[in-house]
Hints:
By secondary structure, the protein is α+β, with helices and mostly antiparallel strands. The chain has helices spanning 2-8, 14-18, 31-36, 63-67, 113-118, 178-181, 212-239, 263-290, and strands at residues 52-54, 71-75, 77-78, 86-92, 96-102, 109-111, 129-135, 138-152, 155-164, 174-176, 184-189, 194-199, 248-252, 258-262. Helices cover 30% and strands 28% of the residues. It has a six-stranded mixed barrel with strand order 4-5-10-6-9-8. Strands 1-11-12-2 form a four-stranded antiparallel beta sheet, with no helix packed on it. A two-stranded antiparallel ribbon has the order 13-14.
Amino acid sequence: xxxxxxxxxxxxxxxxxxxxxxxxxxxxxxxxxxxxxxxxxxxxxxxxxxxxxxxxxxxxxxxxxxxxxxxxxxxxxxxxxxxxxxxxxxxxxxxxxxxxxxxxxxxxxxxxxxxxxxxxxxxxxxxxxxxxxxxxxxxxxxxxxxxxxxxxxxxxxxxxxxxxxxxxxxxxxxxxxxxxxxxxxxxxxxxxxxxxxxxxxxxxxxxxxxxxxxxxxxxxxxxxxxxxxxxxxxxxxxxxxxxxxxxxxxxxxxxxxxxxxxxxxxxxxxxxxxxxxxxxxxxxxxxxxxxxxxxxxxxx
Length: 300
């Protein structure tokens, strides 16, 4: 990850410098700032709450139907100190197992650059989109990608949009949020130190376990990101022609230092990022087609 980031450091400021307000692709996931300060997430009420916590309730089911649903129990190690953390071994793409923080307050999945390297994400030609997350500490560069399979014990989910960042505290390799847990009734037993994932009943209105809102929001995010990079690319091409490739330009990001790049680097950067955004959207579309997602849910 560090090698990748260092190679693009000089040009990572380009998009904010040339895009119109709100035109630069960004992934507004508030989890980034939250998990950087885990102690701030601890609620004093947690220490006196019931020892068994149900994160999501399943629909009303008959006894026979409930018995047919699979339940997966996954032990976890008790954390030390005042911060109540649940760290579990999670297997990605059936190949790499890492220690991940289970965060019921996070909407999405986030992994470290080191874990992404182990998974070979940076070597695959499947869409690795550089984008920015704004928070209390300023703007942080991250990478947006898709993980094909996530498994906790025997509980499994597929096609997980993921953020890659090195701004993760020591002790775990990332976090698992509600995008995974929403597919199960999730119970946490803090006495036995066990997390239980119970399958939700199959519903024809939830292709691959995702509801209409998930599909529409994911398509909207990916399509908007591609459109924003297209606008940025068009603006750069309007400002500078191919003949200007060797010319030097100064670019900067608000609140950051100014740096100098060539027009050629500028054009190459916006070209590559538009292509990465397009790859992610096409991968999502292909996945949706394979799972018979209605056309009106994947409008872009």
